[in-house]
Amino acid sequence: MRLRISRTGEKIRRTDALFVDAIQTRSSLLTALIVVTLCIWGSSTGHVWFVAGIMVVGALSYFFGIVIALLGGLAFTCIELFAAAIPHMQASVIFMEITGYIMITWLGYRHKEQKELQQEHIQQQQFVSHSDQVIPWSVTNEVRTSLAAVRFLLFPLDTDEQKDATLEKATAELSRLEHLFNEMEQDKLKEANQETTIH
Predict the structure, then answer these.
(1) DSSP-derived secondary structure letter, 86
(2) 3-state secondary structure of 85
(3) Do residues 22 and 57 both lie within one domain?
(4) Same structural domain for residues 113 and 147?
(5) Residues 82 and 168 placed together within one structural domain of the fold
(6) Which of 47, 94, 105, 187 would give a disulfide with 42, using CB separation of 3.0 to 4.6 Å?
(7) Looking at the structure, do residues 26 and 84 belong to the same domain, yes or no?
């Protein structure tokens, strides 16, 4: 009996975790759908000021933060109540408007937060890509040695007969260097292709 209860409890915990994870990953989408539904409701029932208020409160939330946006939503609700734009407003209408203002405030704030995180990620990626462009010391030493050899081969202290042989050696050394850098570039391209296929 206890085994069944523990298995059932484990299944319930697993289901709860999946449900919470699904809600967390789709919270912005769900909030946006609710706000759009409230805007459609507002425009179809003649609450045009509510739809305009939603836009203003969302912008306030994005640019100035949650507290300012919530105060703006409260101000819009109070103005609508006291100005009697809609005579005898029902409590359900007020509740829906306040819910809309709260949700658009959260959505604007999350949008700004996500944009900042994306910019940080881009900056980190740029930093990583710059560090990847650094050539290892072994390659640097190889290039330096090869360039020194080419210099001595191109400007020998020997006679004209040996210049042709040294020119061929210099050309071979430059070809070897070019091949080395081509291999490095191909390796980087393979790594980049593997990373893109993994992601």
Answers:
(1) S
(2) coil
(3) yes
(4) no
(5) no
(6) 47
(7) yes
SS3 65: coil
Q: Which DSSP letter does residue 129 get?
A: H
Q: Which string of b and e fits 43-61 if b means at least 16 CB within 10 Å? A: eeeebebbeebbebbbebb
Q: Are residues 152 and 60 in the same domain?
A: no
> Using CA atoms, how far apart are residues 20 and 9, in angstroms rounded to an integer?
16
Q: What is the pLDDT of residues 75-122, one digit of tens each?
A: 998 888 887 655 566 888 889 999 999 999 999 999 999 999 999 888
The residue range of the domain holding 79 is 2-129
Nearest to 154 by CA among 144, 145, 164: 164
Distance CA 101, CA 35 (A): 9
Contact 23, 30 (CB under 8 A): yes
Q: At what angle do helices 66-82 and 48-64 cross, to 10 degrees?
A: 160
- Name the domain count of the chain: 2
* Rounded Cα gap, residues 23 and 20, in angstroms: 5
Q: The pTM is what? A: 0.56
Give the residue from 95, 129, 163 where a domain finishes.
Answer: 129
Q: How far is residue 97's CA from residue 70's CA, in Å, rounded to a whole number? A: 12
| pLDDT-derived band at 56, boundaries 50, 70, 90 | very high
Q: Other C-beta atoms within 10 Å of 68: how many?
A: 14
CA–CA distance, 1 with 100 (Å, rounded to integer) = 48
Q: What would the two tokens of residue 36 be?
A: 């759009």
